[in-house]
Amino acid sequence: MRALLVDHSAPAGLRLGEAPDPVPAPDEALVRVTATSLNPGEVTGVIPGSPDGAVPGWDAAGVVERAAADGSGPAPGTPVATLGLAGGWAELRAVRTDLLGVVPAEADLGAIATTPVAGLSALRALHRLGPVLGRRVLVTGATGGVGRYAVQLARRGGAHVVATTGDPDRHGDRLRALGAHEVVADPGELADPVHGVLDLVGGPQLVRAHGRLAARGTLVSVGRASGEPTAFPAGAFEGMGAHDRTIATFFLLDCPDLGPDLTWLAGQVHAGALDPNVTWRGSWRDADAALAALVERRLHGKAVLDLD
């Protein structure tokens, strides 16, 4: 099969080449991939840390070529969204059936390919916050793939959504169109406390977001886009209400029942109820251009590669 292979001698660390077909385990379906979406963590972490010849890829959408031998999962010919630790950037992918979401017929599989990591991360983080109806929810780093899904989902849940972005003048209108009620550059600008935070930035911004939490509020740390250390000042956990705030983390692949969530997200994207925020789309032959845009932080939203 053809695949995007790690090649540290190539300019972007990848080349299009040949790899062995995957051999599915009994609980895995074999999926013929038609589109994949890129995530910053893959570009900045997975590619540099993988050996030559490895096939990365967390997100992929395609069609079931062969059903799982144990009888679980969808039948051949079913369009699906898939999630895994590797293997998404290839024509064929073996994936556990509990990490498959069934996609509506005639759906744009390129748009659906944005849902596994970005959509599920946003949805599961909001689940961790609990009911948000009538509550103020802050989404930091809201212009990325996870952030834009989080803004939309929090708004649909009835929250008053506050979004942060490094350039509110440039991105504010788009974030408001997605559902944000307020757009600011930094959590420190907020006059009123928030009941929940989905933090995608880490570092000092996480600290300032935590400082704006109301009593019994929760901050869910989802991403660390800043790459900066997170250091709380002395006294951050002292004083009235300061002892009754929660900081939570989670690992997506440890979450149960991801398949049904993927199915739901795919349906919402296909119906137009969720915007997949595809801001770069092209052939996987042009993957270098998408990778460069991610590394240089010129891409706000999702990059989709079509396997042509």
From TrEMBL:
Task: Tell me where in this chain the Enoyl reductase (ER) domain is found.
Answer: 9-305
Q: Which residues form a coiled coil?
A: none
- What domain of life? Bacteria
Q: Which InterPro entries does its entry note?
A: ADH-like_C, ADH-like_N, ER, GroES-like_sf, Lipid_raft_assoc_Zn_ADH, NAD(P)-bd_dom_sf
Cited SUPFAM superfamilies = GroES-like, NAD(P)-binding Rossmann-fold domains
What CDD domains does UniProt report for this protein, alphabetically? MDR4
| Name of the featured protein | NADPH:quinone reductase-like Zn-dependent oxidoreductase
Gene source species: Saccharothrix longispora
Taxonomic path: Bacteria, Bacillati, Actinomycetota, Actinomycetes, Pseudonocardiales
